[in-house]
Amino acid sequence: MSAPDAPPGPAATSAIRLDDVRIAFPIKGQSTYEAVASTSFAVAESEFVSIVGPTGCGKSTLLNAVAGLVKPAGGRVSVLGRPLVGLCREAGYLFQQDAVMPWKTALDNVALGLEVAGRPRAEAEREARDWLTRVGLARFADRYPHQLSGGQRKRVGLAQVLIRHPKILLMDEPFGPLDAQTRQIMGTLLLDLWAADRKAVLFVTHDLEEAIALSDRVLIMSAGPNARIIGDHRIDLARPRDTADIRLDRRFHELHRAIWSELKAEVVKTYGEASA
Ligand SMILES: Nc1ncnc2c1ncn2[C@@H]1O[C@H](COP(=O)(O)OP(=O)(O)OP(=O)(O)O)[C@@H](O)[C@H]1O
């Protein structure tokens, strides 16, 4: 494990970089809630980094700071070597909730991003069909979201994000609502698509196995308040990976044991506080 202190390398080589970022929320009738203490880390270009931590520790808050949705109380967020100002326009987001529009077909949902950006309808439709094929939904182009399964809607969501070729991907429990088997299938699909051009990914999950199966590095967050990164583990499993098969690998188990031994103490703290 490497020490989780200052981010490595100059800002220009990092896709995402946080320097001493602190995040606090005003609470009505109280002093502020210090959610995240001074935190520094970097995600290199082409790197897939996950953040794991106990529930409520601040994983989404950190991701939202990179997205520009939460303004840090201190420190600096940089994206592709430039300090972040306002919303992060270079990012594609995938959240737990579906972002599909219920009144549009799968094809129209995927084409929408290009149409809004001013691309002619015929061109947007052609690319959308191509992306639906890549996510395994070629035959479902004319279905509305309520006619799709949860996993299929997630595939539409992935196509919606990737068709715009964002420079970085920010994902917050994107496969959260799916059953375990579908999550693994979606994880493998994500890795296959990611391998084509390896964008930097910051992926938030409470599922340590998912984090190890997908990532190049797994960061561990401590329990809040004043949460911080307390572990930074390199995942030296070979790629390409099948996110189901990789779980049978001996090295996967070694990594799981090492990371869980650090994470467990934080999870126990959180449950201890909740039941106190
Ligand atoms: N807008 C807000 N105002 C006040 N407190 C907030 C706000 N957003 C988040 N928090 C608090 O900050 C802490 C971190 O929340 P966050 O959603 O980032 O946790 P998380 O690690 O993503 O949790 P989970 O795994 O359960 O989704 C929590 O204690 C939460 O109550």
TrEMBL record:
Residues 16-248 form the ABC transporter domain. PANTHER family: ALIPHATIC SULFONATES IMPORT ATP-BINDING PROTEIN SSUB (PTHR42788:SF13), TAURINE IMPORT ATP-BINDING PROTEIN-RELATED (PTHR42788). Keywords: ATP-binding, Nucleotide-binding, Transport. The keyword Transport applies. This is ABC transporter ATP-binding protein. Belongs to the ABC transporter superfamily. Signal peptide: none annotated. InterPro entries: AAA+_ATPase (IPR003593), ABC_transporter-like_ATP-bd (IPR003439), ABC_transporter-like_CS (IPR017871), ABC_transporter_ATP-bind (IPR050166), P-loop_NTPase (IPR027417). GO terms for molecular function: ATP binding; ATP hydrolysis activity. PROSITE patterns: ABC_TRANSPORTER_1 (PS00211), ABC_TRANSPORTER_2 (PS50893). It comes from the Bacteria. SUPFAM superfamilies: P-loop containing nucleoside triphosphate hydrolases. Gene3D superfamilies: P-loop containing nucleotide triphosphate hydrolases (3.40.50.300).
